[in-house]
Amino acid sequence: MAAPTASKAASLGCNNKPTFPELDFRSGARVEELNKLIQEFTKHDQREYDDQRALEIHTAKDFIFSMLGMVQKLDQKLPVANEYLLLSGGVREGVVDLDLDELNVYARGTDYDMDFTLLVPALKLHDRNQPVTLDMRHSALCHSWLSLRLFDEGTISKWKDCCTIVDHINGATNYFFSPTKVADWFYDSISIVLSEIQKKPQRGMPKVEKVEKNGTIISIILGVGSSRMLYDIVPVVSFKGWPAVAQSWLMENHFWDGKITEEEVISGFYLVPACSYKGKKDNEWRLSFARSEVQLKKCISSSLMQAYQACKAIIIKLLSRPKAISPYHLRSMMLWACDRLPANYLAQEDYAAHFLLGLIDDLQHCLVNKMCPNYFIPQCNMLEHLSEETVMLHARKLSSVRSDPAEHLRTAIEHVKAANRLTLELQRGGSTTSIPSPQSDGGDPNQPDDRLAKKLQQLVTENPGKSISVFINPDDVTRPHFRIDDKFF
């Protein structure tokens, strides 16, 4: 991938040869320059939050959770005591394995400043005593139908209007939980609640700038103070334990062995509202291991994560049309690389350039061979449905990146700097809502105070890029309980 340095040759006794900078063999780019460009991208891509921004984040989160509490009270469909998974980054960033072709295009800086994905369980099945066996007879690998026969009569009664009905020859009726009908119900319920909230606006309440249904995802953009926050809210089915179809994965050796416990990795999984290429949209759900990925992320080196973020920024723009490659595919390749390569190699702080070039090579290899195995269910090829024409088109585009990675990094840096400038211009132009400053005196005693802002700022600083689980009771939304990975607050 990169030419050996003369300094390494010198260490073997060849001191009479001139020294050369380390070069990438394919492009001729200087590895040192690529490392510096990745560092510059990381500097502009990572946002630092002051107390005011931290307070705005907290205000938006509280608004969303209060809204969901009101949705639960509409018809009692959602679980009373629910556990949400809050992920940093929107669906378009590949934090969850969902199809992007049905999503409207939102751009950071133009449409929002920060983005989050919130997984909201519509149903929970939390029996950890045995592997979870799903009904995959009608589905492609990594997908499943969900029969409500797994649940009690009360649950069936509440949700049967969001099911497809299959009558058997013996006269029995089977209700299959429908992702499209659940998404329709969820969007309608959220719209009703937001309409009611906006009839009685309160001081400091976020401004709802946009509510859209993107396929089976509900996207909400909130204006809070000087910030615009995108929440992609995804209705899911939550399971404790581990699916039987992924049991063989646990038998293999993995990069996280000895760093985190198996129990942490297999604590739960989800069904998300997405179907396979030839699947039935009204019935088919996709397995998601988002909770496990939160844990695995703790074992990935900072230099590899920097390379991944830079590579993701390049491919999101380059491979956006036609929609074939998702950032989630790149995330899967990174996890496979962690299994394949020695941990001490991946821990090298000055190897971000090598990792970036390697990720590009891996992605191109997957395209040429039309093969990208799901990390948790390797027998599931996530690129199987693509046409030869599509994969070769994207492979040629990636070849241009590999021939001049420095130029594409500079372009990614300019894009993120432009997005940051748009955010700053909005902040200078005035707030979208009047959130009191944490330093101000007086004000509504019910408003979050300086201590809350400092606490949240501390959590953000200590846990960069981590995902947050939130336990909330809709009858008392003022006291949420946070879990950041394995820590409770």
TrEMBL record:
InterPro entries: Mab-21-like_nuc_Trfase, Mab-21_HhH/H2TH-like, MAB21L/cGLR
Pfam families xrefs: Mab-21, Mab-21_C
Keywords, in A-Z order: Nucleotidyltransferase, Phosphoprotein, Transferase
GO molecular function annotations of the record: nucleotidyltransferase activity; protein-containing complex binding
Membrane-spanning residues: none
Residue spans of biased composition, Polar residues class: 429-440
Start and end residues of each Mab-21-like HhH/H2TH-like domain: 323-398
Region of interest called Disordered, as start-end residue ranges on this chain: 429-450
Domain Mab-21-like nucleotidyltransferase: 134-296
UniProt record similarity statement: Belongs to the mab-21 family.
PANTHER family, per the entry: CELL FATE DETERMINING PROTEIN MAB21-RELATED, NUCLEOTIDYLTRANSFERASE MB21D2
Function summary: Probable nucleotidyltransferase that catalyzes the formation of cyclic dinucleotide second messenger in response to some unknown stimulus.
Record-given protein name: Nucleotidyltransferase MB21D2
Organism listed in the record: Panthera tigris altaica
